[in-house]
Design a protein that fits this description.
Two copies of one chain form a homodimer. By secondary structure, the first copy, chain A, is of the alpha/beta class. Chain A has a single domain, classed as SPOUT methyltransferase, trefoil knot domain (Alpha/beta knot), CATH 3.40.1280.10. Helices cover 27% and strands 28% of the residues of chain A. In chain A, α1 crosses α2 and α1 packs parallel to α5. The longest helix of chain A is centred in the last third of the chain and has 13 residues. Chain A is globular. The termini of chain A are close together. The mean pLDDT of chain A is 96. Chains A and B meet through α1, β2, α2 and α5 of A and α1, β2, α2 and α5 of B.
Chain lengths: 197, 197
């Protein structure tokens, strides 16, 4: 069953040129997003074909862009931060596609317009059960019982914004414990729990 | 209780200059080691002060070098692969210290000579219970019962070598499931299990 991970990049650039030598600084914490992509998709030797990542690049200039990596079809992607950010950088040179239009740039690698609101609307149409990572939520083991496609929403290094919270107000909250973990660590734990069920 | 992670970098350079733009290629998979350091040490906002990483750089030229990051004392380290590899690169310009001599290069950041054999000898002296990550081992939840300092041995993207296996022949094996996970994902799961105990 497909596992979807939606990551919010509040300051991540949505267009233009990025500096691959400064992912954590002038590139708006693209290092955080790249580690999330790595951990959602890669096993030690191979790609998880049941995993999909959607990055939400909200940092401008211009309209927000969404980047999709689909494990089943990804080819030739290397697991290091620089390689993943380089792939994202290639999308940023293209115009942002219209909301609702998903354009393939490379095998398993797509982009589209829209924000988290659009992603959630798409997930609802696809019958996805959506969860928000929240230290105060219910225990993660609850997700094992669900027999529908699963979607998980994570923020980057910043808390959810007011606008994010408006979108996810009614979604279920799950907790991975009391520590505020890095996003890629949350993804590892979700995979681990689901791998064992 | 201190959590120690020993990572074997079979091809990681032990001296000389590294190319920060090619961590996954000519730098001997320093990307894998950097992600391990990130995940062992960093929370979303802060450093785990109960975690220590020892990288084993076995790729030459010259003698093997060990790099120590001690969460309790680390200052000013950024979590991205390039920043962590840059820190390692600074050690590589220095002569390899004698085995048994641990030299501090920056707060919480040390290097020393020696290989896994030396690390295990040090751990034995310190009363550390040592575990090797192995898909065929006993369930990870067993470690929660142990009331001694814990040490975990992981390989990079390659399996343990014959020489590694000679050292760890008698250590306990623990399993995180059937998938062969990336090293940093293993570290996340170990932290998660221990955080909950």
């Amino acid at each position: 069953m497909l596992r979807r991970f939606a990551i919010i990049g509040h300051r991540a650039p949505s267009s233009g040129k990025i500096n691959l030598n400064d992912l954590a600084g002038s590139s708006g914490r693209l290092d955080v997003l790249s580690r999330a992509v790595n951990t959602a998709l890669f096993l030690s030797h191979g790609i998880r074909d049941d995993s999909q990542v959607i990055l939400h690049l909200l940092g401008g200039p211009g309209p927000a862009r969404r980047i999709f990596f689909e494990g089943k079809n990804v080819r030739g992607l290397h697991p290091d931060e620089r390689a993943i950010a380089g792939q994202i950088g290639r999308a940023l040179k293209e115009p942002v596609p219209a909301i609702g239009q998903k354009s393939e740039l490379h095998s398993g690698f797509y982009h589209s317009g829209g924000t988290l609101e659009q992603t959630l609307a798409e997930w609802r149409k696809e019958g996805v059960s959506t969860f928000v990572l929240d230290a105060e939520g219910q225990d993660i083991s609850e997700i094992k019982k669900i027999q529908r496609p699963l979607g998980f929403i994570l923020s980057d290094d910043q808390p959810f914004s007011e606008s994010d919270l408006d979108c996810i107000d009614e979604e279920l909250r799950i907790s991975l414990g009391k520590q505020w973990l890095q996003g890629h660590a949350c993804i590892t734990i979700i995979h681990h729990v689901l791998d064992q069920s």
